[in-house]
Amino acid sequence: MKIIHISAECYPAAKAGGLADVVGALPKYLNRNGHESSVIIPKYKTDWLNRQKTKTVFKSEGPFGNGKFKFSVEKVLDHELGFSLYLVNIPGKFDREGIYIDPWSGYAFWDEMERFFSFQISALEWIVQQKELPEVVHCHDHHTGLIPFMMSKCFRYDKLHETPSVLTIHNGEYQGRFDLYHYNKLPAFNLEEIGFLDWGGSLNALAAGIKCAWKVTTVSEGYLNELMEFCHGLEILLQHEKEKAVGLINGIDVELWDPATDPYLEKNYTFRNRISGKKKNKEYLCKEFSLELSKPLFSFIGRLVREKGADLLPELIREVRKQGLEMNIMVLGTGEPELHRIFKQLSGKFIGYFDARLEYNERLAHNIYAGSDFLLMPSRVEPCGLNQMYAMRYGTVPVVRATGGLADTVVDISEKGGYGFLFEEFSLDDAMAVVTRAVDFYEKQDKFKENLKLLMKLDFSWDQASINYIEMYEQLNKD
Ligand code: GLC
């Protein structure tokens, strides 16, 4: 089958979060299963993209309101990716530093509407004139949420009316809301259909995608159930569309994420030398961050935002020190400026117990998965979560809040076959109780080491997870 993914992110070309990891891996595994899957993203100015050689495959002008804009589509010539990667080059729109956030101001770009509307229009302009049309167009998050609408309603794209579209929700919090009058920037459609764009009086790209896509998926079953209860105003819409919605858990790229070959690690290790291998990586981390090797090391990696529960960490760190619990904590990530300030202050106050690197650092992230004993994910909301899966593959115990994909992938140690730690309520008390349980467990080294075996044998690969997608695509082409 010919499947085209359209997304704002794709690893390694442009990454802000887990969306990039998924779009950079799923197509590769689809191709291995005999399909022809490719990816379209905007041509940003990232380090990786700056280094690539590309070939222009299409040049045209796209409609935008009463005007037009010039764009081209370039194919990346790298053959290592496992799929074809196409870049939409729109002069003046994406050829600047930053993906969503303006690095100079720290805020979202002022022209988000122009950027992502023109990106989506360009992608369709290119697809619609291809000799062999795709059998599925797979969109990801609100940045591509208008594509199912345009494919089914815009006169210009009537050749795509019969092509199935899929929208995957990786994060329902961001919806791409604009003034409704911006509908006139899109290619012409029957105005009676404007209701498909409208949600609560605004043009809502995610809502339009949910209404118009043939299939809506979320990245775990648990998250789909949560969204039907609360999705920042879209819950009723999701309940209404539940017949076409399904939760499909993500996988991880087990080639990229392999402690035996990971080029970023201080020391590579396999299942056989897992104990000594992990120890070497922990030694490295503890030295880098002035932490004591003998204590269990709990790490947090991710965006420092409310959704990920990063604001619970300062309280937790203080409480751990107050109660004198024998454990160390470290944090890697960037996010809310206020949290940066607090973490800096705490790392000065609790030298030897806590440290933070307030940056985006892929290499260090890999080292932390390998060298930590526990990975902390106190998320308020976690659609799927990939970090817990990376951690387990590297033999690190997940300590997570029971929400969304975390609850779907981690089984508490107290249960039969369990291997991680879960806590229910988003509260300091529950978080303290869970880390106390985890520290106790660490002290029973025999059990702790036994659990390592279990963790490293778990299979969260896309080999498994991509099959669900293939079945869904096949079904869509049958219906
Ligand atoms: C988003 C979600 C995360 C998920 C990822 C990939 O970043 O917040 O939970 O794993 O998308 O689907």
3D structure, described in words:
- Helix content is 37%, strand content 19%.
- It is of the alpha/beta class and 479 residues long.
- It folds into two domains: 2-251 and 463-478, Glycogen Phosphorylase B (Rossmann fold, 3-Layer(aba) Sandwich); 274-458, Glycogen Phosphorylase B (Rossmann fold, 3-Layer(aba) Sandwich).
- Strands 3-4-5-2-1-6-7-11-12 form a nine-stranded mixed beta sheet, with helices on both faces. It has a six-stranded parallel beta sheet with strand order 15-14-13-16-17-18, with helices on both faces. The protein has a three-stranded antiparallel beta sheet with strand order 8-10-9.
- Alpha-D-glucopyranose (GLC) binds next to helix 1.
Break the fold down into its secondary structure elements and pairings.
Elements lengths: L1 E5 L11 H6 L2 H7 L3 E7 L4 H5 L2 E11 L2 E10 L7 E6 L22 H17 L7 E5 L5 H8 L11 E5 L7 E3 L18 E2 L2 E3 H8 L2 E4 L2 H9 L5 H6 L4 E3 L26 H15 L8 E5 L10 H12 L4 E5 L4 H13 L4 E4 L4 H10 L2 E4 L9 H7 L3 E5 L2 H6 L11 E3 L4 H16 L1 H13 L4 H17 L1
Parallel strand pairs: 1-2, 1-6, 2-5, 6-7, 7-11, 11-12, 13-14, 13-16, 14-15, 16-17, 17-18
Antiparallel strand pairs: 3-4, 4-5, 8-10, 9-10
Helix pairs in contact: 4-5, 5-6, 9-12
The protein binds alpha-D-glucopyranose (GLC).
Short description:
The chain has helices at 18-23, 26-32, 47-51, 112-128, 146-153, 205-212, 221-229, 235-240, 274-288, 312-323, 337-349, 362-371, 387-393, 404-409, 428-443, 445-457, 462-478, and strands at residues 2-6, 36-42, 54-64, 67-76, 84-89, 136-140, 165-169, 177-179, 198-199, 202-204, 215-218, 245-247, 297-301, 328-332, 354-357, 374-377, 397-401, 421-423. By secondary structure, it is of the alpha/beta class. Strands 3-4-5-2-1-6-7-11-12 form a 9-stranded mixed sheet, sandwiched between helices.
